[in-house]
């Protein structure tokens, strides 16, 4: 693989079908440069789906993860930075969740106010790795490492 950053997700489908349409990451159609992986559940999914559809957005699935991607794309198309859009999402999207977002030049992570979903971070001069469990990071980062557990409601963004 070539590139500077990427995201992936192995998930247990709780709300959507187990098929390719429910596979992560989700793109914010037609904004192909914003992708999201998400662990958790948005409790105001239907509110945001109707609101975003009224604003002209189309959805490719019935998965709540796609709401996050489209939400961020809409905020960024209005001029918000990725970090600002993610901070706004923490105020407006309800539920228990963590998510990662990538754009062409940035990687962001967000952890909801309840911090019910796990998220572990490792950062060095060479790599930023985020996973739901430390063991996943240890598989790609050799040697002894120190990881960080982001705080409740925390948003972090890295830009190339």
Describe the structure.
GO terms for molecular function: transferase activity. Residues 1-160 form the Glutamine amidotransferase type-2 domain. Keywords: Glutamine amidotransferase, Transferase. Pfam families: GATase_6. With 160 residues, the protein is of the alpha+beta class. It has a single domain (20-159), classed as Aminohydrolase, N-terminal nucleophile (Ntn) domain (Glutamine Phosphoribosylpyrophosphate, subunit 1, domain 1, 4-Layer Sandwich). 26% of the residues lie in helices and 26% in strands. The strands form two sheets. A five-stranded antiparallel beta sheet has the order 1-2-3-4-7. It has a two-stranded antiparallel sheet with strand order 5-6. A hairpin with a 4-residue loop joins strand 5 (120-123) and strand 6 (128-131). Helix 1 crosses helix 2 (64-77) and helix 2 (64-77) packs across helix 3. The longest helix has 14 residues, at 64-77.
Rough outline: globular
The run of helices and strands is EEHHHEEEEHE
Structural class label: alpha+beta
Mean model confidence by pLDDT? 86
State the domain count. 1
> What fraction of residues sit in β-strands?
25-35%
CATH-defined topology? Glutamine Phosphoribosylpyrophosphate, subunit 1, domain 1
Largest sheet: 5 strands, antiparallel
CATH class: Alpha Beta
Which spans have pLDDT < 50 for at least 5 consecutive residues? Answer: none
Q: Tell me how many strands there are.
A: 7
Radius of gyration, whole Å: 15 Å
How far apart are the termini? Answer: 18 Å
Tally the helices. 4
The helix content, as a percent range, equals 25-40%
Domain Glutamine amidotransferase type-2: 1-160
InterPro entries: GATase_2_dom (IPR017932), Ntn_hydrolases_N (IPR029055)
Pfam families: GATase_6
GO molecular function: transferase activity
